[in-house]
Amino acid sequence: MPIIVQKYGGSSIADIEKIKKVAAKIVARKNEGFDVAVVVSAMGKTTNEFIGMAREISQNPPKREMDMLLTVGERITMSLLCIAINDLGVEAVSLTGSQAGIITNDCHNDARVIEVRPFRVQDELRRGKIVVVGGFQGVSYKREITTLGRGGSDTSAVALAAALSAEACEIYSDVDGIYSADPNLVEGSQHLPEISYQMMQEMSMAGAKVLNAQAVEFAKSAQIALFARSTFNEGKETEVRKLAEGQPKGVKAVTYENDVVRVKIIGDDNKNLNWLLKILDEENVSIKELNVVDESETNCSKASFIISHKNIYHWEQLKNKFQNKLQNSLSFDYDISTLSIIGEGINKENSVLLNTLDLFEKNDIEVLGLSTTSFRLSFIVEKNKISDAVKLTHKKWIETA
User: How far apart are CA 243 and CA 193, in angstroms?
Assistant: First the structure.
């Protein structure tokens, strides 16, 4: 039978009643003639609660122990969901990420999937069972339990779908797809029935929370269609796939991110910067918007970059290490946010950039930094201006376009 992989986020399985409803939904999909593998997140805000408990003990908990702690949440969910499915008369079996064959690199807290060996999953599907896998987790080649970082259950689901050659991967949450902006912030945000892999990946990297960027990367490589849907409100959906040539160009979405810090550094011949980047790489901390200015007359360089620090559990420890080494050569700016305009062809001419800069200037929004990719324009602005900046930008380029 064809295989469908489903993923359910924490809000979809936040309590026992929701777990029962999700179980019925999964069984109905099975009865449509599909083999079904399901990936689940932890219930509700369980992961945040675990993080809070750890930080009551230590502001810098060991990364390995955080992985051991946080993977408990998904194990609770997968077991309860299997109990509910079995109670409906259909056999189900729960598997941890390691039991499901999800192999990662040796990085705790933000591991990358390097291989999926789904033999156990395939065996259970052949026996007619529904397989429920704990998302967000895997096992390293050193046989250590690892977690995949923010949105890691999406990555688990798509990686598993690719390994199983699934028909599709269905991502269920409390929203009915992808919107042109955060609907909680922008009243005029528009639902997007379909979007390309490239644009979805740019949106995810720029702060959109519906789908994980690494998950979209997996889907693109395997050419697996992703369907973002609401768990309990059927109707709308967004399909993420390769779109045909000749799609309309222009701005499609406006995204933002608040939980960021800009790191500024001064050094001789980039020595300080090189040291800092090496440590960040060893700690598996990603950076964005790197900007370096060399002043040849003084043999000195100035550099800055952005870090999304919210899910770096040992961020304070890292920051103290940097400050102890670099002292006055280093500074941190938390009073910023990033805003990104996403769309195909927006950088082939400068009109979107120039008009956006003009819009910000007229509304007293200072641009503190700027970067571009093929599908994205990103601006650094003051955090207290981000709400206005998003609304103004969305109105100009999408609502009145």
Answer: 12
Question: What's the pTM value of the predicted model, to 2 decimals?
Answer: 0.88
CB 240 within 8 A of CB 228: yes
Give the C-alpha separation, 135 to 153, whole Å. Answer: 4
pLDDT tens-digit series, residues 265-300: 887 667 888 888 998 888 888 888 888 876 655 556
Distance spanning both ends of the chain, measured CA to CA: 46
Q: Are 148 and 157 in contact (CB under 8 A)?
A: no
Q: For residue 207, name the pLDDT band (cuts at 50, 70, 90).
A: confident
User: Could you tell me how far CA 45 lies from the centroid of its own chain?
Assistant: 17
Contact indicator for 130, 86 with CB cutoff of 8 Å: no
Pull the structure tokens for residue 141.
Answer: 């080649």
What token pair was written down for 318?
Answer: 């890292």
Q: Token pair of 73, please?
A: 């949440």
Q: Would you state the structure tokens that stand for residue 359, as one six-digit string?
A: 């819009």
Amino acid identity for residue 15 in this structure: D
